[in-house]
Give the backbone structure.
Amino acid sequence: MLSRCDLVKGAAVALLTLSIQGAWAQETKMNLFKIVTVKDEIIIGLSPDELQALGGSDASAVAHALAQKGDLTVWQYNVHRGQNGEMQQAPTAKIGLLANASLRVEPYTTPYQIMPHP
């Protein structure tokens, strides 16, 4: 039979594990955006650091940087099955965006876990 002390220790370890996983998830939080072009729509992912380098933290910062620079290199994201079989939004290719082909940049939400790009 488990003692009260063992239960408290087990709960503390579980709480510490969950808080570390939560902190890791926040550090690697990716921001997804839908890029609407004349021909199609694609989903891209940017880290908070990449967004700050573009000069903001939202879709307007991405659109403004694309208009200013004329092109951006980003990671395209698509839905895939992870190693555990669950669906996740994961990076599939590093692509170049051209300002003249992009009509709109908007935030994108997904019900799936978002994987960070390399």
Notes: The chain has a mean pLDDT of 81. The first helix runs from residue 4 to 27. Helices lie at 4-27, 48-54, 59-69.
